[in-house]
Amino acid sequence: MKGVGKAQRSGMWGALFSLGSGMLLICLLILFTSDNPADTLRSFFLGPWSSPWFIGNTLDMVALLLVSALGVAVAFRGGTFNLGGEGQIYIGGLGATVVLLSFPSLSGTVALLLAALVSLVLGAFMGGLSGLLKRFARADELITSFLFSAALTPVADYLIAGPLRDKSGSLLASPRFATTRILPHLLPPSSLSVSLLWAIALVFLVFILMNRTESGYRFRVAGASPEFARFGGFPAPAYWGYAMTASGALHGLAGFFAVAGTYGLCHQGFSGGLGWSGIAVALIGRNEPLALFPAALMFAWLKAGSDGALLASGLQFETSAFVQAIILLLVTVRFVPRLGRSL
Amino acid sequence: MMHTLLIASVPLLLAGLGALVSDLSGYLAVFLEGAMALGAFLVWVFSVWSGSLLTGFLASLGIAGLVGWLLSRFIRWTGANPFVTALAVNLAALGITETVSVILYNTKGVLRDPRFPGVNGNLFVWLAFLLVLLAYGVIYHTPLGLRLRASGRSAEVLLQRGIDPVRYRDGAWAVAAMLAALAGGIVTVKVGAYAPGGTTGQGWIALVMVYLGFRRVWGVALAAIVFTFIERLGIEAQAFISIPSTILLGLPSLLALLLYILSQLLRKE
């Protein structure tokens, strides 16, 4: 037990270190580039919580991050690494869009349920394929999931800019869904919808399945220690398929929540960066479902804050890539190098 | 025909060679995508700035090599996860190229400049050929290459001889990053302008070349040429079957995926 506690403390350390460094980097960028650093810093830290509208948008980001990070965490815990999240979110959202724009005879609730199911199945298929390929073809799921996602993304780009496009608008986007086919919003006119409640429920569901059931125990052991699992009579490769399928399904659902909740339509590249942010959040939370709550909250704060600060100062930086990069770079750090030691 | 094919396959061949070197050290460099993007951008910036392609390439390769080396050292110093940390480079490259482009040129779009020097494509074919020869010689016929291969395949042997196998990753990642940056720079030179996202996906496809080439130097070179050939066929086929050009952008990734699965199925162990 002592060892576990220690591992978790050093894990916490990496998480705090990466978040702190991310915050510091953004602050430095602001200080060096803004004409009015004090105001920009204020909008960075307080902007995301400054009005119901901003709070709603930040919490909506938390919801999307929770679902995609949960997908990443499930894959990690099962001993796999899902790098195709970006495409699974995109294709999942696209599938949901097709459902929400067709079948006019269905009621709103049924259409939404069907859309959620379709996005879930599409994501599960994309992830599951990589899991099965890892098991039966010894193909690295890191590479197959990424390539599968990269191969399908242009197809989605084409469908959104072509057949599905709302010809009357200037955006590369689908028409807006009927009001009955958009998830109920909680803090209108912000983008926050009931997807936050669903996201929280999903996190608890995965937590219970993974930590309070026997198959969940086997799943975790197979992922953490394949040798031990083999001697225990449940070989790890059998769990790779489940891990990647569940991971893909959750990413697909994240796509559904984005189009049916956040945007109310599907625009080209709507998933932009959500998959990578999910990886960052999952790693900050050490792939522990319940730890994803603070991780997603902090990440959303950082992201919304930097977006707002840059908007306020009129600068055009690609902050999300920087925030993701600095967190991925530092989040798995296990110890600080002792300076002066011969390296 | 053969000639254009060779010129077209040079970037993939070089990046694939980089991927192979990293793989031999036991740690596949998943940052090649970022290193290629960085190389494509930096070669443009430095070449326009200095007026010389050679200076542009040398500066870019120097920076990329430093990034690969530092990354590997950083992982050793901090015990961080090599894959996750390497992914950070891909995202950082995206942010850095875009931000610097906005600061220097006020645009996120395509960069054109009449001062950007051009060069005959044959030069790159010869360069690639020489580098393949060099890689072959170093990897299979020098003690350094032997130890590099041992560091990935049987690290215990090196440990017993008092050599830290992980140290070989430092050099391997530096070389991999430099080769990828060279590949990215060549893409820019061939286009004659810097196009953001012009190398998207190629770093990942380069990783696949390691498997398609069965982890051999000549295998990777041949795999890159064959891959480029099939890719061209697919694009030519557009004249007969009407596939929207946007969808065709996914073709290289799909092809790499299928060939990768096939090569893994054929591999005996």
Automatic annotation (TrEMBL), chain A:
GO terms for molecular function: neuropeptide hormone activity; transmembrane transporter activity. It holds the Pfam family BPD_transp_2. The chain crosses the membrane at residues 12-33, 53-76, 88-106, 112-133, 142-161, 192-210, 239-263. Its main location: membrane. One of its GO terms (biological process) is neuropeptide signaling pathway. Coiled coil: none annotated. Keywords: Cell membrane, Membrane, Transmembrane, Transmembrane helix. It is found in: Cell membrane. GO terms for cellular component: plasma membrane. It comes from Gracilinema caldarium. This is ABC transporter permease. The keyword Transmembrane helix applies.
From TrEMBL, chain B:
It is a multi-pass membrane protein. GO terms for molecular function: transmembrane transporter activity. Keywords: Cell membrane, Membrane, Transmembrane, Transmembrane helix. The chain crosses the membrane at residues 28-46, 53-71, 83-107, 119-139, 171-192, 204-227, 239-262. It comes from the Bacteria. GO terms for cellular component: plasma membrane. Coiled coil: none annotated. InterPro entries: ABC_transp_permease (IPR001851). The keyword Chaperone does not apply. It is found in: Cell membrane. This is ABC transporter permease.
